[in-house]
Amino acid sequence: MELHxxxxxxxxxxxxxxxxxxxxxxxxxxxxASVVALxxxxxxxxxxxxxxxCFGETLTYADTDRLSLAFAAYLQNKLGVKKGDRVAxxxxxxxxxxxxxxxxxxxxxxxxxxxxxxxxRELEHQLNDAGAQVIVIFSGVxxxxxxxxxxxxxKQVITVGLADxxxxxLASPPVDARLANAVAFSDALAQGADLPxxxxxxxxxxxxxxxxxxxxxxxxxxxxxxHRNLIANTEQFKAFVPGALHEGEEVVVTxxxxxxxxxxxxxxxxxxxxxxxxxxxxxxxxxxxxVGILRAARPTxxxxxxxxFGALVMHPQIGEVDFSRLRxxxxxxxxxxxxxxxxxxxxxGRDILEGYGLSETSPILTLNPTxxxxxxxxxxxxxxxxxxxxxxxxxxxxxxxxxxxxxxKGPQVMKGYWQKPEANTAAFTPDGYFRTGDIGVxxxxxxxxxxxxxxxxxxxxxxxxxxxxxxxxxxxxxxxxECACVGRPDExxxxxxxxxxxxxxxxxxxxxxxxxxxxxxxxxxxVPREVLFLEALPKSNVGKILRKDLRGLA
Length: 554
Description:
By secondary structure, the protein is an alpha/beta fold. The chain folds into 3 domains: about 15-30 and about 225-455, Rossmann fold (3-Layer(aba) Sandwich); about 35-200, Rossmann fold (3-Layer(aba) Sandwich), CATH 3.40.50.980; about 455-550, GMP Synthetase, Chain A, domain 3, CATH 3.30.300.30. About 30% of the residues lie in helices and about 25% in strands. The strands form 5 sheets. A 9-stranded mixed β-sheet has the order 2-1-11-10-12-13-14-15-16, sandwiched between helices. An 8-stranded mixed β-sheet has the order 7-6-5-3-4-8-9-19, with helices on both faces. A hairpin with a 6-residue loop joins strand 14 (about 355) and strand 15 (about 365). The longest helix is centred in the first third of the chain and has 19 residues, at about 60-80. The protein is globular and about 70 Å long. The chain starts with about 35 loop residues before the first helix and ends with a helix. The model is unreliable at about 1-10 (pLDDT under 50).
C-alpha cells in the first residue's frame, strides 16, 4: 500500500475513512456527455418550475430553454458562431447572464467570463488572449469596451439591459455611442426566435469556459476548463452533500458574481441541474436590497465569502430574515473566520461549511462535510475522486502536521492554461499534480487547513508567519470589523508583521489594544509590530481582501 512520507505510517487518502460511508470515494466524470446535456435535461424535467428571479420577474426552466435556444440560433445564423469559438460575457447577476450562457454553450462555443469592473487595460488583455470575436456586455460598462475595441479582434458587440429577457421595463444605462454597430440582446432574442438551430455534438473534452485568474502575479491567465471538468465538480459537490440537496425543492440566493467560477459551478450549474429556484442579486453592495431579497426568498442554500457573511450578520434588518429553511451555507474564496461563523450560526442555526478551490480546479477541491458538528477552522476534506498531497520546498511530501504546498489531481483540474505551454510546465508536478501555490496542513483525519499563499508568508527572524493565523486572532478582538496583515522590511528581523484594521462603527480601539490582544494569543514573533487603521480594507469584486494593495501603503 502506498504511504505518505510521514513520521507515522498513514494510509494515502486517509480522508476516505472520515467520509463515514455516506460519501462515495469516486464519482463518474462522464455521468453526462456535456454540461449542455446536463442542463437540457433539467430544462425538460423542471420546465414549469422557476429557474431565476430578479427585479420582481421570474424565468421558468421552460423560459430559459426557449430564450437560450433563440440566442443560440441568432449566434449560429447571424454571427456564424461555431463549436470551439470563444464568446466573451461581461455581465453582472442579471437575467441575461443565464440566458446568454445557455445559448453560447448550445452552439458549442466556449464562454470567456469577464469581470464587469475590469479596466480597459485588463479587458483588452483578456479579449486578445482569448481570441474572442463576439462579446455580450452590460450597457453600463460599454464605455470600457469602447476604449479598447479597436485593438482587439471583436467583430460583434451585443449589449444587454438590466431586465433583458424578462417582461420588466427598467431603465438601463445608455450604450456608449462609439459602439455604433452594437446589437441589443433583446433584438438578438427576437430575431433568433424565428431562426432554425442546428444542435451541436459535444463531448467531455470540449472547451467550456476560459476562466481567467486574478492576475495577482502578473497578467491573468485563462484556465481552460472542459465540459468534463465541470461535470466532474458538479457530481463531486452533489455526492459530498447528499442530505442537503433535494431535487425540485431548493431555493438559492446568488449574491456572488456568476462570472466567478464558485458561483458559476455551485449556484448556477449544480443547482440548475436539480431544479432549484435561483434568486439573483445584481448588486450585493446595496445591503438593504440584498437583505430584502433574502427576506423574500427564505433560502434553503446560501453561498458567500467571509466579508459577505460578515456584512450580513451586522446588518440591522438581518433579524427579519427567516432562515428556518436554510440547510446549507457554503463559504469560499477566502478564509472564513471563526468569529464570522459563530455569528452566522447564532443567526441561522447553521455552520458555514468552508471549502477550498481555484479557477484552475473548476473550482472545488475540498469541502467540510455536512455531518461535521461545529466550525472546523479547516477547508474540509478532499472531494471524491480528488487526490491532494503537500510538497515541501524540495518537492518531498510534507510530514503529517507540517505545512507544504497543496498539489491536486482530479477530474475537475484543468488540463492547462490557454495557450501557455511554459506556464503549464511550471504549474504541474512531473507526475501531474497541479501546484496551487497555497500552503496547507493535513490532520490525521484528512482535514486540510490552508495556512497561506506561498507568496504571502512572512518570515520573521527565520520563522514562518502565516497571515491567516494572525488575522483570525486579531479579528476576535472587540472593535475589529475586519483586518489583514502583510510583511514589511525590517533591519533586525528581515520582515515584521504589519496589521491593517477597519473598526466596527463607534469602536474606540487603539493600536495598543490590538497588539495587547494579539500578544495574549500569539507567540512573540507573530505579534504585529504595528497596527494601521483604515476606513475600509481594499477588496476584489468577490470580497477577497487584497493584501497586495496593502503592501504599497505606508
